[in-house]
Amino acid sequence: MLTGPLTRFDPLRLASQATELSGELDTTRMPRLADVLAAPATARWTLRAGRDEAKRLVLHGEVAARVSAICQRCMEPVELPLQSDIMLAVVSDDEGASRLPASLDPVFMDENGEIDLAILLEDELLLAMPAVPMHENVADCGERASKMSTGALEEFDIAERENPFAVLKKLKQDKPD
Ligand SMILES: [Zn+2]
Description:
This protein is an alpha+beta fold. It is 32% helix and 30% strand. The chain has 2 domains: 128 residues, no CATH class; 31 residues, no CATH class. It binds zinc ion.
């Protein structure tokens, strides 16, 4: 039915159809996200449109992608599963956006009443990206980390000790099976 990946859609029409859209979109269509990735990836997404209790046109859905970024500890690629639940209110201008409750983020329709899917998915995935991508465990860091000076490694150990979650993770990890 569609030739090539869907990139724009009419949210009003989607709401009237009461169906779910779904598809895949390559991160090569998302330049801001592609900038922070080590390699291209494919995002899978679903979207439904409807009206909320205040009769606002809203989009719900999900986007997920398994991406590869550069670990900021060892500078080797690290695989990151990104996932975001989409819950957005469709608006046509800043005024519409300013009327939304704080719990609802806006998504903007263009002058043709359409939404750019690539921008929507890119925004969601960028929000799901960790601010500092890193291997979850120091032990998973690539071989370049082992070539770092002892001093630098000690610094990372101190940073880990100060993070209670990292300590918990380490305890779990050290526990024999
Ligand atoms: Zn690493």
